[in-house]
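F.,

This is the one I mentioned.
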């Protein structure tokens, strides 16, 4: 075991809960990295108590003071970029450069959080002679964040800088598959001067998530993960009258028109479906080829063949995930789809015990097939061929998901036509991964997001704060008596 057993982080202290643990495996090598505790409800109780105790004093600090911690935290993320990237790569299996991009994004969202004093200034207006109305943003209180395996550094950072700068205390429940990065973030936050109890980690799986949803001391819950679990968390936490924002899975469509720039389209689509081994909620999953785009598909296949697992592409998170992905490909093949690039039997020198699937392109897929409708979450691109843009839109619109969609064309008018009609929260023109950069916010539509508002950027302010509206009258000489 490379690292000591993972601890919880409660009230500024690392603590090892007794009880069951799970193995944390390096998915590129299959070797044991550490063990993660399946914490008991008692641990959650301790974390809620610590957070509730610490939060009022943190809230009482002016936002300009709270934000100072995050200037330092951003510097620490940058100073420790290599080490943090290494940890992400080890526990998740993505390449070092992909892991570094994740850490860079964490620094970018923290930079946004550092601008919050500028964005959260309230408003004041004299609404009647001698009477003023003003509004202020007040923290929600104790919030909990539940995160997935695919971005162990970035997804916790989607929430923690904004939520904490805005005066909340937090309990993080990281993915049990990738729990190491979270603990390192807790250490850096402490080094940056965050008071004890404002950021806590309780490791575990389903039991802790259910405990979070039910706990009366937790005021808000954010979740990022699959749609199946997002629906459970959304319904369960809301039934206890908490505010909930639950981001789910995705099935992203890229619509490629015959006039698209062939080189740019091929390289963008290839990067989109293979980046992080296809385990991104923004990854391309379906390419809808409109009309004759064979010349683009040929280039796309060459691009995909140049992406080599274990060299410039990472691994899948687990053997179970690998089997799920391969099953989708097998099923599509047996239903008549044609494999243009086949990554099922990839061999990785040194990674014989790891979980690898190479880039795979499946052509002539029909809209009703499982591979065309369900989230595969691997480096697999499904090509559906249609004759018209209207048919392409019909397919995209029929998907229950709505995270991302993009169009590839040289026509501004056609790009506008498509973007206006796709049903997705994050759309792109000639961009394979249309992730909005700060200050624009991140969040999908439909079954890719339950709740109101987005999880990052300006749109997240509503989620992390409550608006207090105050009406004030002081001076009797104004003779304002209509408000008593
Ligand atoms: P997951 O849903 O299996 O797990 C997410 C979290 O939920 C983990 O912390 C896990 O411990 C917990 N969990 C798992 N099963 C549970 C249950 N039955 N009850 C309560 N909690 C449970 O997701 P994952 O496999 O870790 O991550 C991949 C998924 O996340 C993909 O579907 C991907 O699209 C999605 N994702 C979405 C976004 C987005 O922004 N929309 C971002 C990243 C990942």
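My design for it:
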């Amino acid at each position: 075991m490379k690292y000591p057993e993972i601890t919880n982080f409660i009230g500024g202290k690392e603590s090892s809960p007794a009880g069951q643990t799970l193995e944390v495996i390096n998915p590129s090598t299959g070797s044991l990295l550490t063990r993660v505790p399946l914490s008991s409800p008692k641990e959650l109780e301790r974390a809620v108590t610590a957070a509730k105790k610490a939060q009022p004093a943190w809230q009482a600090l002016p936002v300009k003071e709270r934000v100072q911690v995050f200037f330092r935290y951003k510097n620490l993320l940058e100073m420790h970029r290599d080490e943090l990237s290494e940890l992400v790569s080890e526990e998740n299996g993505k390449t070092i450069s992909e892991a570094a991009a994740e850490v860079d994004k964490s620094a970018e969202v923290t930079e946004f959080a550092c601008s919050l004093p500028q964005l959260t200034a309230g408003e004041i207006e004299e609404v009647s002679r001698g009477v003023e109305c003003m509004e202020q943003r007040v923290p929600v209180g104790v919030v909990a964040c539940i995160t997935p395996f695919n971005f162990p550094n970035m997804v916790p950072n989607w929430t923690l800088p904004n939520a904490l700068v805005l005066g909340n205390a937090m309990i993080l429940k990281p993915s049990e598959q990738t729990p190491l990065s979270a603990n390192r973030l807790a250490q850096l936050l402490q080094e940056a001067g965050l008071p004890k109890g404002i950021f806590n980690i309780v490791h575990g799986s389903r039991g802790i998530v259910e405990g979070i949803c039910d706990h009366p001391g937790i005021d808000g819950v954010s979740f990022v993960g699959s749609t199946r679990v997002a629906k459970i968390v959304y319904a369960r936490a809301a039934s206890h009258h908490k505010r909930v924002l639950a981001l789910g899975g995705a099935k992203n469509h890229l619509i490629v028109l015959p006039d698209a720039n062939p080189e740019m389209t091929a390289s963008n689509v290839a990067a989109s479906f293979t980046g992080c081994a296809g385990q991104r909620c923004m990854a391309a999953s379906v390419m809808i080829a409109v009309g004759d785009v064979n010349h683009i598909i040929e280039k796309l296949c060459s691009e995909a063949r140049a992406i080599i697992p274990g060299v410039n592409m990472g691994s899948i998170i687990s053997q179970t995930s690998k089997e799920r992905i391969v099953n989708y490909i097998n099923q599509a093949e047996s239903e008549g789809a044609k494999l243009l690039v086949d990554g099922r039997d990839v061999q990785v020198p040194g990674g014989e015990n790891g979980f690898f699937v190479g880039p795979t392109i499946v052509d002539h897929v029909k809209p009703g097939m499982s591979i065309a409708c369900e989230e595969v979450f691997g480096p697999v691109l499904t090509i559906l061929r249609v004759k018209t843009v209207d048919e392409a839109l019909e397919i995209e619109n029929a998907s229950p998901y709505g995270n991302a969609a993009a169009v590839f064309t040289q026509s501004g008018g056609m790009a506008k036509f498509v973007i206006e009609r796709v049903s997705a929260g994050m759309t792109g023109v000639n961009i394979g991964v249309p992730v909005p950069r700060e200050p624009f916010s991140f969040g999908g539509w439909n079954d890719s997001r339950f709740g109101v508002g987005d999880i990052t950027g300006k749109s997240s302010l509503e989620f992390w704060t409550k608006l207090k509206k105050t009406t004030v009258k002081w001076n009797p000489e104004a003779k304002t008596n209509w408000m008593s």
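Residues 148 and 175 are 5 Å apart (CA to CA).

Talk soon.
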